[in-house]
Amino acid sequence: MAMVVTAGRGLVDDGRVSESESARPDPEVEPKAKRRTFTAEYKARILAEYDAAGHGEKGAILRRERLYSAHLVEWRRARDQGAAEALSRPRGRPASDPRDKEIEQLRARLARQEKELEASRRVIDIMGKANALLEALSESIPDVSRESPRKENG
């Protein structure tokens, strides 16, 4: 919303300082900030340079590299704990162990086989009951083939 002010003699002031308004960068913050990443060589080089610097030069190094003293404290601690391994350690979530994936696959396979085994047990149980029923039915019905035909003498 531009404010228009009319000064004497018909001059109009729309609030702009200069015509190069569009050349100025947008003051809004980027929606997604990106973290800077540093290589192990860079960390080692900066630590060596910082440690070798005199009293007044240390702040200049931090400003030039856009670093905080906390960066150096963390890098120095990592260097002391594990030398190059700790300095080159990637940030973020560690890679998953391939054994974990294999264990998960084996567990899924076991679950499927247990389900199949249970289904097979049910089928066997039903077949056993059907067999018992057929035997019971066959015993209750008189067997025609067992009886000998009677001969009638006349």
UniProtKB/TrEMBL annotation:
Superkingdom classification of source: Bacteria
Regions of compositional bias (Basic and acidic residues) in chain numbering: 11-32
SUPFAM superfamilies: Homeodomain-like
Span list, region Disordered: 1-35, 80-101
Name of the featured protein: Transposase
